[in-house]
Amino acid sequence: MDAGVADSAKHTGQCLCGAVTFSAEGLNDLWYCHCRQCRAVTGHFLAVCRTERERFAVTGDISWTPHSGASETGRCASCASPLFWRRAGSPNISVMMGCLDSTAGINPVGHSFVGEKGDYYMIDDGLPQFTAMPTDGF
Fold this sequence. Notes:
The chain is mainly beta. Helices cover 5% and strands 39% of the residues. The protein is built from 1 helix and 10 strands, in the order E-E-E-H-E-E-E-E-E-E-E. A 7-stranded mixed beta sheet has the order 6-7-8-9-4-3-10. A 3-stranded antiparallel beta sheet has the order 1-2-5, with no helix packed on it. Strand 8 (82-87) and strand 9 form a beta hairpin. The radius of gyration is 14 Å and the shape is globular. The two termini are 14 Å apart. The model is unreliable at 1-6 (pLDDT under 50).
């Protein structure tokens, strides 16, 4: 298994207003994405971890917004908090770390799209850096 959490670990989270709640088992592969799209969607770089869609449950109204030809962002339909990210055809869903109730046990594995990062911050944490999405990325 990749760096991350034990396969059976269960995490919960919610949007800002509480209208959307979710649970996810086996969240792993915490990545920091610095691509232009992620920075535009969140206002900064994105911290996200993934799990299989079958290990993910959500309650509440989600609004899915496409942000590329192959991916979309899930937001709370009430408060518009960005919560999830998914690629068409992928068996995985990625959860934005900031909406988790606890991030205990989830460890970062690297930075993607560092060639598109903003020039207003440095990456100096010693994690691997990739100019695009790694083949085993989120």
